[in-house]
Specification:
This protein has 140 residues and is an all-alpha fold. The chain has one domain. The chain is built from six helices and no strands. Helix 1 packs antiparallel against helix 5. The radius of gyration is 17 Å and the shape is elongated.
Length: 140
């Protein structure tokens, strides 16, 4: 079980690295003024989303379910897990929306400014703080 937990945490760190960096790329992409720069950001965004963030998300969720599988009755009787799973679902939705934004930028149809993406970039930080507190403190 400890090996599964260790790899779950490693995958989660990789997933969050992608979720922190991808919106930062959107910030720079939205401000890019030349076509070679925009094309470079398209490549970086696609590779980060498909090559790192999405596989890390899948592994994180799979290993999390594996961990719950060790003692489902015990875990599901704890309120903190329900809150964590809700936050993970919100984070998966955020991830999918980031994929939509990768396509929006790839199609050159972005209509938002770099300021929007600067705020958008902060959302996963809030989820991370809440999840770490729930898992560590187990307040309910």
């Amino acid at each position: 079980m400890l090996w599964v937990k260790a790899f779950h945490i490693i995958a989660m760190v990789c997933w969050f690295a992608g979720l922190f960096y991808l919106p930062r790329l959107f910030v720079y992409h939205a401000g890019a003024e030349d076509q070679p720069g925009r094309d470079r950001f398209k490549t970086m965004e696609r590779k980060l989303y498909r090559g790192i963030a999405t596989p890390s998300m899948i592994i994180t969720v799979a290993l999390g379910l594996w961990l719950i599988g060790y003692n489902p009755a015990g875990y599901f009787s704890q309120g903190w897990l329900h809150a964590k799973l809700l936050l993970v679902a919100v984070l998966v939705a955020y991830h999918i929306y980031c994929g939509h934004l990768v396509k929006v930028f790839a199609d050159d149809t972005n209509g938002r400014s770099h300021v929007f993406y600067r705020w958008f970039n902060e959302f996963p930080v809030l989820i991370l703080i809440a999840v770490v507190i729930l898992v560590t403190v187990k307040p309910f």
